[in-house]
Amino acid sequence: MSETIRVLISEEKVDERIRELGNQISRDYEGRQIHLICVLKGGVFFMCELAKRISVPVSMDFMCVGSYGDGTSSSGVVRIAKDLDESIEGKEVIIVEDIIDSGNTLYYLMDVLNKRNPAGMKLCTLLDKPERRVKDVKVDYCGFEIPDEFVVGYGLDYAQKYRNLPYIGVVEGLD
Ligand code: IMP
Ligand code: MG
């Protein structure tokens, strides 16, 4: 059976919510500078849009952590495929992620980054699937809580496809 995409969250709703998150973060960090850390590849669309909505000074870095193969379930194995370019010591870090699912990836990543002595570290995710949580991860800023369905778009992929969709959709017709 071939895959089809059902729209779960429209482009307009995603844009509106990112604007709200940007405003909230700007208020929370008033007078301070934020160091955004994008978790590649999925977080990149969200981080770019979010960064544009933040009114306090922002710097950015990128990290690539993998826990998924080309399938739709977590292997639980986390590896750093690309580390940060700069030190985070003394910086107000916000990790920007596409989705928190089992929590395995972020639990591991936050542990690694906390040991590098940032001034603060918060987590901002576009999507959260709380039903699927295995590891206890505190989400500070969340775009949308979604049910346990496999979603694509806005950076999220299925076998590297659909990242460029400007909305969040559910893949239907998977085996
Ligand atoms: P976790 O370690 O299980 O929390 O998985 C986090 C990562 O799995 C995310 O950063 C995504 O890359 C991927 N992932 C989890 N759920 C989905 C989904 O519904 N669609 C696409 N990727 C997903
Ligand atoms: Mg991700």
Could you write a compact summary of the structure shown?
By secondary structure, the chain is α/β, with parallel strands linked by helices.
Could you describe the 3D structure shown?
The protein has helices at about 10-30, 45-50, 105-115; strands at about 5-10, 35-40, 60-65, 80, 90-100, 120-130, 140-145, 150, 170. The chain is of the alpha/beta class and about 180 residues long. The protein has a six-stranded mixed beta sheet with strand order 4-3-2-5-6-7, sandwiched between helices. Strand 5, helix 3 and strand 6 (about 120-130) form a beta-alpha-beta unit. Helix 1 packs across helix 2. The N and C termini lie close together (about 10 Å). The chain binds inosinic acid and magnesium ion. Inosinic acid binds near residues 101 and 152.
**Unreliable residue stretches:** none
Class computed from helices, strands and strand pairing:
alpha/beta
Distance between the termini: 8 Å
Broad shape: globular
Counted by DSSP, the helix tally is: 3
| Helicity range | 10-25%
Tell me what portion of residues adopts beta-strand conformation: 25-35%
Tell me the radius of gyration. 16 Å
State mean pLDDT (0 to 100 scale): 93
SSE order in H/E notation?
EHEHEEEHEEEE
The strand line-up of the biggest sheet is 4-3-2-5-6-7
Q: Which molecules other than protein and nucleic acid are bound?
A: inosinic acid, magnesium ion
Largest sheet: 6 strands, mixed
Tell me the total number of β-strands. Answer: 9
